[in-house]
Design goal:
alpha+beta
Length: about 160
C-alpha cells in the first residue's frame, strides 16, 4: 500500500511511525480518537464528503486539498486547491461549496505521470497553510481557501473572517 511504501521511506529518520492501511469513512469515529488536526487528500469526491462530515462533527480542524485538471486544450490545465476548515468554522466553510463532494467521471488525475509536481506543490501549500494556522508563519490576512491555476500560475484566495 501507499502508506507502507512511505513508512519504509521515512523509517530511517522518523521514529515511532504507525502505519494503518485502511479506508476512512463515516464509520471511522474510533480511528479519529486523539486526532488534533487532519489533512484530507482523496481523489473521490464522494469519499471526501463523508470524511469532511465526520471531521466537522468531531470538531477536528483540517485542510482539504484537491485538483481540478482537464485536457480540453491538449496539455494539462486546471487548478489546485487547499481549503482550511478551522475548529468551529467547518460548517461555514463547507457551506461555501468550494470542495467537490461528487466523483468526476472525466478525472485525468490517475492517468497522468505529469502531475507528480502538482501533488508536491499542493502538499507544500497545505503544509504552509497548516504552519500559518499553528502560528509558525505570520498570517497578515487569514485565508481559508487558496486556488492555484496551472496555466497562469496565479493564486486566488478567500479570506477568513476574524
Amino acid at each position: 500500500s501507499k502508506a507502507e511504501v512511505y513508512a519504509a521511506r521515512y523509517a530511517n529518520f522518523r521514529h515511532g511511525l504507525r502505519v494503518e492501511t485502511k479506508f476512512i469513512d463515516e464509520n471511522s469515529i474510533d480511528d479519529l480518537e486523539g486526532v488534533t488536526f487532519a489533512f484530507v487528500c482523496v481523489d473521490k469526491g464522494s469519499a471526501r464528503a463523508k470524511i469532511i462530515d465526520l471531521l466537522i462533527a468531531r470538531k477536528i480542524p483540517f485542510i482539504d486539498v484537491g485538483m481540478g485538471l482537464n485536457r480540453k486544450q491538449g496539455p494539462i490545465a486546471g487548478s489546485m486547491r487547499a481549503t482550511v476548515f478551522a475548529a468551529g468554522d467547518g460548517e461555514r466553510v463547507r457551506a461555501e461549496q468550494l470542495v467537490p463532494t461528487h466523483d468526476n467521471p472525466d478525472d485525468i488525475y490517475k492517468s497522468n505521470i505529469q502531475i507528480a509536481e502538482l501533488n508536491a506543490l499542493n502538499a507544500c501549500i497545505a503544509v504552509m497553510l497548516y504552519k500559518k494556522h499553528m502560528g509558525f508563519y505570520v498570517e497578515d490576512e487569514p485565508l481559508f481557501n487558496l486556488l492555484f491555476g496551472v496555466s497562469d500560475m496565479r493564486a486566488s484566495r478567500q479570506l477568513r473572517e476574524v
